[in-house]
Design brief:
Elements: H1 2-14, E1 23-29, E2 32-44, E3 47-62, E4 71-83, E5 88-97, E6 103-106, E7 116-117, H2 123-137
Antiparallel strand pairs: 1-2, 2-3, 3-4, 4-5, 5-6, 5-7
């Protein structure tokens, strides 16, 4: 009986809680489709933060460290900060995942990123429009 209790305790602690995710497509190009998780939209210090995802049609390679070791990824997930009134955004974090969903590289939090104007007819504009509309409805 004690073994059963220990097993249940271990399973309870080791299994992460389910987190709701509702992905809405905000753009596509020949290499990728882009989505935002509308369940992740939050207001922090007057700006919205949302999780954005890029799913690529093939594996991509980047060399971030300049050491010749390539990072191979098929998906990106990042935190985008948005100012709905000024129509600007900035990427606060970017994670790269391999074809199995394992993290292969992360920028970590980037709180000093510059705010950039959102270009018309881009997936950045669609991200801003969808995120701001969802937040206003909530």
């Amino acid at each position: 009986m004690r073994a059963l209790a220990v097993t249940l305790l271990v399973l309870t602690v080791s299994v992460p809680a389910a987190v709701a995710e509702t992905w809405i497509e905000v753009g596509a190009d020949p290499e990728a489709k882009f989505y935002i998780d509308v369940d992740s939209i939050t207001m922090i210090n007057g700006s919205l933060q949302v999780i954005k995802r890029g799913l690529y049609t093939r594996q991509l390679t980047e060399n971030f460290d300049g050491n010749g070791k390539a990072t191979v990824f098929k998906e990106t997930r990042g935190t985008v900060e948005i100012d709905c009134e000024l129509r600007v955004n900035r990427v606060r974090r970017i994670d790269m995942l391999d074809e199995y969903g394992a993290l292969v590289w992360s920028s970590g939090d980037m709180p000093r990123q510059l705010w950039l104007s959102v270009k018309p007819n881009s997936h950045a504009e669609a991200t801003l429009d969808v995120a701001c509309a969802y937040y206003d409805r909530a």
